[in-house]
UniProtKB/TrEMBL annotation:
InterPro entries associated with the record: Phage_Tail_Fiber_Structural (IPR051934), Phage_tail_fibre_N (IPR022225)
Top-level taxon of origin: Bacteria
Lineage: Bacteria, Pseudomonadati, Pseudomonadota, Gammaproteobacteria, Enterobacterales
Domain Phage tail fibre protein N-terminal positions: 1-137
Organism expressing this protein natively: Salmonella enterica I
Protein name: Phage tail fiber protein
Record-linked Pfam families: Phage_tail_fib (PF12571)
Amino acid sequence: MSAKFYTLLTDIGAAKLASATALGIPLKITHMAVGDGGGVLPTPSAQQTALVAERRRAALNMLYIDPQNNSQIIAEQVIPETEGGWWIREVGLFDETGALIAVGNCPESYKPQLTEGSGRTQTVRMVLITSSTDNIT
């Protein structure tokens, strides 16, 4: 059975990571975006340069190497209770130039807005598996 939810490097992300590794220059991942997939669960593609239907993009709260598995990078963003009113079905990581480095889909989650009568702060984590984490910051 194949995985329904997954994350992958985009073609641009793979090229930038290869260049960073070859040159010894860090690839700086700075932002995460979430989207609603246009109303359906999207299938991530390495050819993507944007999310299907981006709803929010903001600076990362945290980016770190998984202490239990050094081939996994974990990116985290916190969405405050004042933002929302949409579904989260897709996630993306962007570098300092705004290029989409990695894209993934996720189990559907409704992010309520406080003005709807129910709000919550929501943490979104994205795990990216790569052969080398040395040149990613």
